[in-house]
């Protein structure tokens, strides 16, 4: 019987190993050689639906998975907290602008900028949960802050946890009693005979209402037509008044023009009279000089007559002798 060749067997084994390594690199996208960071988050309340291997996402992109879930109980207060340990592949998310102190572990720098974790529903059918990472700088995050080699990402309550808290604080008995009272009140209202009569009278009331609306429409139409006629008559009267005012203004303009012409003639006559009076009253004028001369002649004649009268009075014979 021919012995198998050791070289052939070795080549077959090496080929199989190469195929295995190639499959891992091809289907795993080199995940074995990617750098991973371990982180932990502490959740309060129940984490039912969260399983080991559940995805850790950042705005819909898977960046890691849940590695283990534990429970920590405080013996003094008997309060429990759920630590969830995760592994992240930070190469998927490119982080820029971090300080040198956090460049070795970028998770610390992201936490300082508001990175938090919360539980969200992965599938409504199976009820499975996943961890969602996102920046929530304004949210009230919970952080244990215990010394650990694993960086901690603070947590915020999930919407389902907040709803559960509200339901737990809700007084179901009082709510059911209030609903029963409300149902009884509604039943009593519908059982009231007055409501039945009102429902029966409703068609007649609607018919009356339609008639009233039609009457109002007709009255409004008639009122509108009368108002339009009144407005038209008022407009005609206003136009007539404006025409009369314009005619009066024209007549006033004509009368004013004639009056102004007569006033101008009177003023010219007055100016002539004033000029004549000025010439008469002027002390250096010819008329005043002639009057002054006549007065002087009259005064000289009166002096001679007075002298003659005195001589006749002393010697009447002067009349007979002459001089």
Please provide a written account of the structure.
- The protein is α+β, with helices and mostly antiparallel strands and 323 residues long.
- Among the domains are: 28-157, no CATH class; 286-314.
- 57% of the residues lie in helices and 14% in strands.
- The chain has eight helices and seven strands; from the N terminus they run αβββββααββααααα.
- The chain has helices at residues 6-27, 100-103, 106-112, 159-169, 172-190, 193-281, 286-314, 318-321, and strands at 37-43, 55-58, 61-69, 72-73, 80-88, 115-121, 129-135.
- Strands 1, 2, 3, 4, 5, 6 and 7 form a seven-stranded mixed β-sheet that branches.
- It is elongated and about 220 Å long.
- It starts with 5 loop residues before the first helix and ends with a helix.
């Amino acid at each position: 019987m021919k012995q198998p060749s050791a070289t052939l067997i070795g080549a077959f084994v090496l080929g199989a190993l190469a195929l295995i390594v190639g499959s891992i690199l091809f289907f795993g996208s080199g995940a074995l050689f990617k750098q991973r960071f371990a982180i932990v988050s502490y959740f309060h309340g129940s984490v039912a639906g969260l399983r080991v291997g559940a995805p850790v996402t950042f705005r819909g992109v898977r960046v890691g998975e849940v590695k283990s879930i534990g429970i920590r109980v405080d013996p003094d207060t008997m309060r429990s907290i759920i630590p969830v340990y995760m592994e992240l592949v930070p190469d998927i998310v490119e982080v820029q602008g971090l300080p040198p102190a956090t460049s070795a572990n970028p998770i610390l720098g992201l936490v300082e900028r508001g990175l938090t974790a919360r539980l969200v529903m992965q599938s409504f059918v199976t009820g499975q949960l996943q961890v969602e990472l996102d920046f929530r700088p304004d949210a009230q995050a919970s952080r244990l802050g215990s010394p650990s080699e694993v960086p901690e990402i603070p947590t915020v309550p999930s919407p389902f946890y907040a709803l559960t808290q509200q339901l737990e604080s809700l007084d179901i008995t009082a709510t059911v009693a209030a609903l029963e009272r409300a149902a009884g009140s509604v039943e009593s209202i519908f059982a009231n005979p007055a409501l039945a009569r009102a429902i029966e009278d409703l068609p007649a009331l609607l018919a009356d209402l339609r008639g009233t609306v039609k009457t109002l429409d007709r009255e409004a139409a008639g009122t509108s037509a009368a108002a339009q006629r009144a407005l038209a008559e008022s407009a005609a009267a206003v136009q007539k008044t404006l025409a009369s005012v314009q005619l009066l203004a024209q007549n006033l303009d004509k009368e004013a023009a004639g009056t102004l012409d007569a006033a101008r003639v009177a003023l010219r006559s007055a100016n002539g009279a004033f000029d004549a009076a000025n010439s008469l009253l002027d002390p250096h004028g010819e008329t005043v000089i002639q009057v002054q001369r006549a007065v002087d002649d009259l005064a000289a004649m009166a002096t001679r007559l007075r002298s003659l009268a005195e001589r006749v009075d002393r010697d009447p014979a002067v009349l007979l002798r002459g001089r």
